[in-house]
Amino acid sequence: MNLHTHTHYCDGKSSIKEIWDAAVDLNWQFLGYSSHAPLPFDCKWAISDKNIQNYCNEINELRQNKSDTLPFTGWEIDYLNGIGFPSLKSKYIYNADFFICSLHFLKSPLKKQGFIEIDGTLLDFIRCLSGYENSIEMLMSAYFSDLHKMLTTLVPATKIIGHIDKFLLNANKVPAFHQYKKKFNDMLLEWLEQSISEDVIIEVNTRCIYKYNWIEPYPGITALKYMSEKNIPCVISSDAHHHNELDLGFEHVYKICKEQKINLNFINKQLPDIIKNNRTAVNA
Ligand SMILES: [Zn+2]
Ligand SMILES: [Zn+2]
Fold first, then answer.
1. Which partner for 98 in 6, 74, 106, 199 could form a disulfide, CB atoms 3.0-4.6 Å apart?
2. Where are the domains of the chain?
3. How far is the CA of 3 from the centre of ligand 2 (A)?
4. Residue 194: is its pLDDT beyond 70?
């Protein structure tokens, strides 16, 4: 079971059917698709507007198959400062089964820079940093401020918060960040504490493990320990961009949890019911 998958409708390498076949081979009870929803500016990894309906139709067709693997239509939607979730304007996206809510862009204080991707290239990250007077502290504050706002912005279906500390992908490559690591972790735990009173599910994302050989997923061990202590509901996902990646990194995370005595409240198995109940609530 994995709700975070990308197909060739956005920046994935496999078709909807190929991902589906791989999930059936794994004997999964369900599978979620989460294409990158379109943005109000050019973005090379997002689906194009003209393909939104085809994507939904193709998943709906799979649902007609009397198979033991149930497909869910989802989207990875971007939170943008001052805008919210712009892609929810599309009725096809609004009517999805679930959303992976992610923060990939920060708004630069410099008007001419606009929104800059912080987990894209290191060059973009540094460009974004320059907009914040080259202050890592200011950039971190902007990141967490948006993360807090994203937490309280409502979505019309099951809300999963994606890769909460993906900021680290580039921040770890900037020497000036190292003295702020503790502060970053404190801010992350503070954010997790706030998440407890919101109706959200936190994603444990394994992509950095199999793609970059990291030893910890997003979020890392400190956050996982806190999530275990507070019994915060979470799901494991691989953020797959290829049908061979559907469950990559899962065993690694289970092993870390065992070694570190982390007992995460994984709700993967309850997800079909949670998704159905949330949809009923929206339609009522
Ligand atoms: Zn993402
Ligand atoms: Zn993704």
1. 74
2. 16-283
3. 10
4. yes
pLDDT in tens, 52-101: 999 999 999 999 987 899 999 999 999 999 999 999 999 999 999 999 99
Closest-approaching ligand to the CA atom of 105? 1
Q: 161 phi and psi, to 5 degrees? A: -95, 120
Q: Which fold has domain 16-283?
A: TIM Barrel (3.20.20)
Closest CA to 273 of 23, 19, 30, 74: 30
Residue 10 Cα to ligand 2 middle (Å): 10
The most distant pair of C-alpha atoms in the chain lies apart, rounded to whole Å, by 57
Q: How much distance in Å is there from the Cα of 49 to the middle of ligand 2? A: 18
Report CA(197)–ligand 2 centroid distance (Å). 25
User: Distance (Å, rounded) from C-alpha 263 to C-alpha 255?
Assistant: 11
DSSP-based three-state secondary structure for 215: coil
Closest ligand to 79 CA? 1
Cβ neighbors of 210 (< 8 A, separation 6 or more) are 238, 245, 248, 249
Cα separation, 78 vs 119, in Å, equals: 13
- Closest to 165 measured CA to CA, from 231, 198, 214: 214
| Helices 250-259 & 221-229 angle (0-180, nearest 10) | 70
Q: In this structure, what token pair is assigned to residue 59?
A: 């998943």
Distance CA 138, CA 172 (A): 16
Entry pTM: 0.96
Q: Which residues contact 273 (CB under 8 A, 6 or more apart)?
A: none
